[in-house]
Amino acid sequence: MHVRVLGALHVEQDGVDITPSAHKPRQILSLLALNSNRVVPNAGLMEELWDDNPPRSAVTTLQTYIMQLRKSMAGAMEVPTSVVVKENLITTPGGYLLRLPPESIDLHRYETLDARGRDALDADDVAEAVRLFDEALRLWHGTALVDVPPGPLLQREIVRMEEARFGTIEKRIEANLRLNRHSEMLGELRALCMEHQLHESLQAQYMICLHHCGRRDEALAAFRTLRWSLIKELGLEPSVKLQRLHRAILADDPILHRTPSFFRLPPAHAGTPERAKTPTPVSVNATEKEGGERARGKPSRRRKAQHRRRRG
């Protein structure tokens, strides 16, 4: 069996498409595939299907959905259903287990390529890292499980997979910038920054790209826009490292010519505190200053925490 979850759900057995058409069997098969070779408890499957409001017939209905999946698999394999029960979709005490070779699910292949890419990047084999990240991202065909209506368990899995993809994109950008491919990455970075307006690491990479392409004024404008957005939305100043990058661009510091990526920016000079209580002055108009002061009131603690986790 081959399962694709990095995009629309697709399940194939011996060349036959056996992707369920009904919503709930799609949820069950997706959850079993994402936890392949591990037992998924009945309680977890019922929570996925009905959240905290299962019907009285939940156990019987779940068994019916499992029987339907087994029949589809057996038909494609041209074997009795009893074979599937014993070897493929197995009943265990308290749950079910889908037996799959790891390489038969695209998520496993993606995670393997991503890990190899990170190892190559850490070893300074940057060109190989780019190749591996590109190959990993080519396995994606849209949002994970885009055509499966998720319950609470699948929703968590989808968030995890999407965060992993975003991390791969970030690493791929870093690797390309380390190969001095600034002009080639400019368009992609701009689009990502428009989508993730408060993501400091992406915005910093975009600023460095612009600077390396001789567009220093646009790099400074990008910082002003980011700072204004952070103050307005979260009541936060940019990170100290991003403020150092801003000062370096302002001064056209020669160190930037030796710094292809934000993550390669050297630490502050000895004796310079890495955290400053007073924010770096930034040229903004009076309206922005006034609006910034108003926006500092009571930003969401949750948004602040989420932003800190995403900072470079």
From TrEMBL:
Residues 264-312 are annotated as: Disordered. Residues 287-296 have a biased composition (Basic and acidic residues). The keyword Transcription regulation applies. Residues 297-312 have a biased composition (Basic residues). Pfam families: BTAD, Trans_reg_C. Residues 1-100 bind DNA. GO terms for biological process: phosphorelay signal transduction system; regulation of DNA-templated transcription. InterPro entries: AfsR-DnrI-RedD_regulator, BTAD, OmpR/PhoB-type_DNA-bd, Sig_transdc_resp-reg_C-effctor, TPR-like_helical_dom_sf, WH-like_DNA-bd_sf. One of its GO terms (molecular function) is DNA binding. Keywords: DNA-binding, Transcription, Transcription regulation. It comes from the Bacteria. Residues 1-100 form the OmpR/PhoB-type domain. PANTHER family: TRANSCRIPTIONAL REGULATOR REDD, TRANSCRIPTIONAL REGULATOR REDD-RELATED. Belongs to the AfsR/DnrI/RedD regulatory family. This is DNA-binding SARP family transcriptional activator. It comes from Nonomuraea jabiensis. The lineage of its organism: Bacteria, Bacillati, Actinomycetota, Actinomycetes, Streptosporangiales.
